[in-house]
Design goal:
The chain is an all-alpha fold. It is built from 12 helices and no strands. The protein has 2 domains: about 60 residues, Tetracycline Repressor, domain 2, CATH 1.10.357.10; about 110 residues, no CATH class. It is elongated and about 55 Å long.
Length: about 190
Protein backbone atom coordinates (compact mmCIF):
# COMPACT_ATOMS: atom_id res chain seq x y z
CA UNK A 1 0.00 0.00 0.00
CA UNK A 2 1.47 3.35 -1.00
CA UNK A 3 1.38 6.46 1.17
CA UNK A 4 -1.73 7.93 -0.48
CA UNK A 5 -3.66 4.64 -0.16
CA UNK A 6 -2.59 4.44 3.46
CA UNK A 7 -3.89 7.95 4.15
CA UNK A 8 -7.16 7.13 2.39
CA UNK A 9 -7.58 3.95 4.44
CA UNK A 10 -6.80 5.83 7.66
CA UNK A 11 -9.31 8.57 6.87
CA UNK A 12 -11.93 6.00 5.88
CA UNK A 13 -11.35 4.17 9.16
CA UNK A 14 -11.77 7.41 11.12
CA UNK A 15 -15.01 8.12 9.27
CA UNK A 16 -16.33 4.59 9.85
CA UNK A 17 -15.57 4.81 13.56
CA UNK A 18 -17.16 8.26 13.85
CA UNK A 19 -20.28 7.06 12.04
CA UNK A 20 -20.63 4.06 14.33
CA UNK A 21 -20.13 6.23 17.43
CA UNK A 22 -22.79 8.66 16.27
CA UNK A 23 -25.19 5.84 15.36
CA UNK A 24 -24.98 4.67 18.98
CA UNK A 25 -26.42 8.03 19.99
CA UNK A 26 -28.88 9.00 17.26
CA UNK A 27 -30.70 8.06 14.09
CA UNK A 28 -28.78 8.07 10.82
CA UNK A 29 -30.96 10.76 9.22
CA UNK A 30 -30.15 13.08 12.13
CA UNK A 31 -26.36 12.84 11.68
CA UNK A 32 -24.83 15.76 9.80
CA UNK A 33 -21.64 15.82 7.79
CA UNK A 34 -20.41 18.59 10.09
CA UNK A 35 -20.78 16.55 13.30
CA UNK A 36 -19.37 13.45 11.62
CA UNK A 37 -16.28 15.39 10.56
CA UNK A 38 -15.89 16.84 14.06
CA UNK A 39 -16.11 13.35 15.57
CA UNK A 40 -13.64 11.93 13.01
CA UNK A 41 -11.26 14.89 13.35
CA UNK A 42 -11.31 15.72 9.63
CA UNK A 43 -12.66 18.68 7.69
CA UNK A 44 -15.69 18.72 5.40
CA UNK A 45 -13.50 18.99 2.30
CA UNK A 46 -11.87 15.68 3.22
CA UNK A 47 -15.30 14.09 3.65
CA UNK A 48 -16.37 15.20 0.19
CA UNK A 49 -13.10 14.01 -1.35
CA UNK A 50 -14.04 10.51 -0.16
CA UNK A 51 -17.83 10.43 -0.26
CA UNK A 52 -20.70 11.89 -2.24
CA UNK A 53 -22.99 11.96 0.80
CA UNK A 54 -23.71 10.21 4.10
CA UNK A 55 -25.38 7.28 2.35
CA UNK A 56 -22.16 6.72 0.41
CA UNK A 57 -20.23 6.58 3.72
CA UNK A 58 -22.77 4.19 5.23
CA UNK A 59 -22.53 1.85 2.22
CA UNK A 60 -18.73 1.88 2.34
CA UNK A 61 -18.75 1.28 6.11
CA UNK A 62 -20.97 -1.78 5.66
CA UNK A 63 -18.74 -3.04 2.83
CA UNK A 64 -15.62 -2.66 4.99
CA UNK A 65 -17.19 -4.47 7.95
CA UNK A 66 -18.28 -7.32 5.65
CA UNK A 67 -14.81 -7.51 4.06
CA UNK A 68 -13.15 -7.70 7.49
CA UNK A 69 -15.62 -10.40 8.50
CA UNK A 70 -14.92 -12.47 5.37
CA UNK A 71 -11.18 -12.08 5.98
CA UNK A 72 -11.65 -13.34 9.56
CA UNK A 73 -13.09 -16.57 8.18
CA UNK A 74 -10.01 -17.27 6.08
CA UNK A 75 -8.63 -19.43 8.90
CA UNK A 76 -11.49 -21.91 8.39
CA UNK A 77 -10.34 -24.76 6.14
CA UNK A 78 -12.03 -24.80 2.72
CA UNK A 79 -13.77 -27.79 1.24
CA UNK A 80 -16.00 -28.75 4.15
CA UNK A 81 -19.48 -29.99 3.32
CA UNK A 82 -21.94 -27.13 2.89
CA UNK A 83 -23.94 -28.38 5.88
CA UNK A 84 -20.95 -27.81 8.16
CA UNK A 85 -21.41 -24.08 7.73
CA UNK A 86 -24.76 -24.21 9.48
CA UNK A 87 -23.97 -26.77 12.15
CA UNK A 88 -20.30 -26.66 12.98
CA UNK A 89 -18.52 -24.99 15.86
CA UNK A 90 -15.51 -24.29 13.65
CA UNK A 91 -17.64 -21.88 11.60
CA UNK A 92 -19.60 -20.43 14.49
CA UNK A 93 -16.57 -19.77 16.71
CA UNK A 94 -14.79 -17.40 14.24
CA UNK A 95 -18.15 -15.77 13.42
CA UNK A 96 -18.95 -15.09 17.06
CA UNK A 97 -15.34 -14.20 17.81
CA UNK A 98 -15.42 -11.53 15.13
CA UNK A 99 -18.70 -10.20 16.49
CA UNK A 100 -17.26 -10.08 20.01
CA UNK A 101 -14.09 -8.30 18.82
CA UNK A 102 -16.27 -5.78 16.96
CA UNK A 103 -19.01 -5.65 19.58
CA UNK A 104 -19.70 -1.92 19.35
CA UNK A 105 -20.12 -2.07 15.58
CA UNK A 106 -22.34 -5.15 15.76
CA UNK A 107 -24.46 -3.68 18.53
CA UNK A 108 -25.17 -0.72 16.22
CA UNK A 109 -25.76 -3.09 13.30
CA UNK A 110 -28.23 -5.09 15.39
CA UNK A 111 -30.06 -2.02 16.68
CA UNK A 112 -30.15 -0.29 13.29
CA UNK A 113 -30.65 -3.32 11.07
CA UNK A 114 -32.79 -1.30 8.64
CA UNK A 115 -29.62 0.64 7.75
CA UNK A 116 -27.22 -2.27 7.56
CA UNK A 117 -29.59 -4.74 5.85
CA UNK A 118 -28.21 -7.83 7.59
CA UNK A 119 -31.01 -10.02 6.27
CA UNK A 120 -30.00 -9.03 2.71
CA UNK A 121 -26.48 -10.30 3.46
CA UNK A 122 -27.92 -13.65 4.56
CA UNK A 123 -30.14 -13.73 1.48
CA UNK A 124 -27.10 -13.29 -0.76
CA UNK A 125 -25.90 -16.68 0.55
CA UNK A 126 -29.26 -18.44 0.08
CA UNK A 127 -28.59 -20.19 -3.24
CA UNK A 128 -24.98 -21.17 -2.57
CA UNK A 129 -25.10 -22.10 1.12
CA UNK A 130 -28.51 -22.22 2.74
CA UNK A 131 -30.62 -23.92 0.07
CA UNK A 132 -28.18 -26.84 -0.47
CA UNK A 133 -27.79 -27.27 3.30
CA UNK A 134 -31.55 -27.31 3.80
CA UNK A 135 -31.84 -29.90 1.02
CA UNK A 136 -29.25 -32.00 2.85
CA UNK A 137 -31.38 -31.81 6.00
CA UNK A 138 -34.46 -32.97 4.09
CA UNK A 139 -36.36 -29.69 4.12
CA UNK A 140 -38.99 -29.64 1.39
CA UNK A 141 -38.57 -27.03 -1.33
CA UNK A 142 -41.75 -25.12 -0.43
CA UNK A 143 -40.66 -24.96 3.23
CA UNK A 144 -37.12 -23.70 2.56
CA UNK A 145 -37.92 -19.94 2.56
CA UNK A 146 -39.68 -20.32 5.92
CA UNK A 147 -36.96 -22.41 7.53
CA UNK A 148 -34.32 -20.06 6.14
CA UNK A 149 -36.12 -17.07 7.64
CA UNK A 150 -36.58 -18.87 10.96
CA UNK A 151 -32.91 -19.87 11.10
CA UNK A 152 -31.44 -16.50 10.15
CA UNK A 153 -33.76 -14.39 12.27
CA UNK A 154 -33.44 -16.78 15.22
CA UNK A 155 -29.65 -16.72 14.99
CA UNK A 156 -29.70 -12.92 14.77
CA UNK A 157 -31.98 -12.79 17.83
CA UNK A 158 -29.63 -15.02 19.85
CA UNK A 159 -26.63 -12.90 18.85
CA UNK A 160 -28.58 -9.71 19.56
CA UNK A 161 -29.36 -10.89 23.08
CA UNK A 162 -25.68 -11.81 23.54
CA UNK A 163 -24.67 -8.32 22.38
CA UNK A 164 -27.13 -6.72 24.81
CA UNK A 165 -25.15 -8.41 27.59
CA UNK A 166 -21.84 -7.13 26.13
CA UNK A 167 -20.99 -10.69 25.03
CA UNK A 168 -20.37 -11.67 28.67
CA UNK A 169 -22.12 -15.02 28.37
CA UNK A 170 -19.84 -17.88 27.48
CA UNK A 171 -19.30 -18.23 23.73
CA UNK A 172 -19.59 -22.02 24.01
CA UNK A 173 -23.11 -21.60 25.38
CA UNK A 174 -24.05 -19.33 22.46
CA UNK A 175 -22.54 -21.78 19.97
CA UNK A 176 -24.49 -24.61 21.56
CA UNK A 177 -27.73 -22.60 21.38
CA UNK A 178 -27.25 -21.81 17.71
CA UNK A 179 -26.24 -25.37 16.85
CA UNK A 180 -29.28 -26.83 18.61
CA UNK A 181 -31.43 -24.21 16.96
CA UNK A 182 -29.96 -25.12 13.56
CA UNK A 183 -30.47 -28.81 14.08
CA UNK A 184 -34.09 -28.19 15.08
CA UNK A 185 -34.60 -26.19 11.86
CA UNK A 186 -33.19 -28.95 9.72
CA UNK A 187 -34.63 -31.96 11.51
CA UNK A 188 -36.34 -34.24 9.05
CA UNK A 189 -39.88 -35.34 9.72
CA UNK A 190 -39.95 -39.01 10.56
Amino acid sequence: MNKQESRYANTASLMDEALLLLLEQKDFDRITVKELCQKAGVNRTTFYLHYVNMNDLLEETVDRINARFKASLSAVPPGDPITEILTSEKYLRPYLGFIKENMRAYRVIHLKDHLFKSQKTFESFYETIFSPALTHFGVREEEKPYVFSFYTQGTVAIIGKWLEGNCRDDMDMIIDLIMRHTLACGRQEQ
